[in-house]
Design goal:
161 residues; 81% helix
Amino acid sequence: MKIARNKNGSNRLQKLLGKSDDVDGLLCAAILSCFLHVMTEKHASYMALRGLRIFDEEKKKAMYEHTVIHTLQIACDQHGCIALNEVITDSEHPHYRNQLLEVVTHIALDLSKDTYGNFVVQHVRLNCMTCIARIVLRLISVVIALSARSRSMEAILWRSR
């Protein structure tokens, strides 16, 4: 998969996708063997995203399952968060999309503490109206705690003046 790490190599591999079942099987196996690294590489992730659009249902299922397993690690990576947002947006199969949305809402607290993870939470919040309530429920205790801490800090600062 080293070839997919640069723009030219990624583009050439993307052109091979969909040419034959054998090539698709080989590339899918290669992607799955180092899935987390592929999804967090700037150029290699484009090849994986194209594969999700082109592969047959069996290969797509395997890739979505890997995405669900590695959601936290992918979301908290500079390039992975972009790839994960695209997977969520471009998902053709409602079951896989809903599964990813459920995972993101379930780990929203952890994701919101990370710069790149927060990007994924915001993407889900803006693109999934049904997820907003679940995300708010996950984050409400933190908001209350931060609000209380903020008020106590304001009191300390005000008294010290």
